[in-house]
Design a protein that fits this description.
Blueprint: E1 5-8, E2 10-11, E3 16-19, H1 50-56, E4 61-63, E5 69-70, E6 73-74, E7 82-84, E8 92-95, E9 98-101, H2 103-106, H3 111-127, H4 131-145, H5 150-160, H6 172-194
Parallel strand pairs: 7-9
Antiparallel strand pairs: 1-3, 2-8, 4-7, 5-6, 8-9
Helix pairs in contact: 3-4, 3-5, 4-6, 5-6
Length: about 200
């Protein structure tokens, strides 16, 4: 008999996914600043393997590592592939070892917001379930890689500030404030490195 489990999909907005599959407990850890993770370390993310997800989510397609682009800009989360799933009930999600994007939800968003979503989900691979940690990971990546400037930061805050929040996600305006702190700290660190 097949058991169906309700798994929490780690993503921007606390989406849930009904998945009839086993769980994998793999997790990568990375120590980031105190803004990004708690003293206890990142909470683990768990979920189906890539093969289980693709098998269950009919129509979902894997994009090989290094082949993903957003508005013509290549994006990469190390060796992790991206799954394109138009049935995902959020903009993006993350399970151990792969990211998920919903192209329908991303359509119409500015390029910096799309990149923020992608790297937020990538961040979960390193900080676990921490939403604010994944937010800061994305902002830091954007500044260091050169795709995020002040105008893009404003677009991301406009996007996120509309969200009310839930048990796992602070309200959008609070997330924006924390991301602006990460942005300022990363700009400062980058300037110091050039001196």
């Amino acid at each position: 008999m097949k058991t169906t489990l309700r798994l929490a999909l780690i993503g921007l907005f606390g989406s849930a996914l009904l998945c009839g599959c086993g769980l994998s407990g793999d997790q990568e850890g990375a120590a980031l600043s105190s803004l990004e993770t708690s003293r206890m370390g990142p909470p683990a993310i768990t979920g189906p393997t890539l093969q289980q997800y693709l098998s269950y989510q009919k129509g979902a397609q894997q994009v090989a590592q290094g082949k993903m682009t957003l508005d013509g800009h290549p994006v990469s989360c190390g060796a992790r592939p991206t799954v394109i799933d138009a049935n995902l009930d959020s903009w993006g999600g993350s399970f151990p070892g792969y990211l998920i994007l919903n192209p329908n939800r991303l359509r119409g968003l500015s390029t910096p917001v799309k990149q923020y979503v992608y790297y937020h989900e990538c961040g979960h691979q390193f900080v676990g379930a921490s939403e604010t940690g994944a937010d800061c990971f994305s902002i830091r990546r954007g500044v260091k890689s050169g795709w995020l400037n002040a105008a893009g930061m404003n677009q991301i805050c406009d996007f996120i500030s509309e969200l009310k929040g839930d048990a796992a996600h602070p309200p959008g305006p609070q997330r924006c404030q924390l991301m602006r702190q990460c942005y300022a700290m990363t700009l400062h660190d980058k300037a110091q490195a050039h001196n």
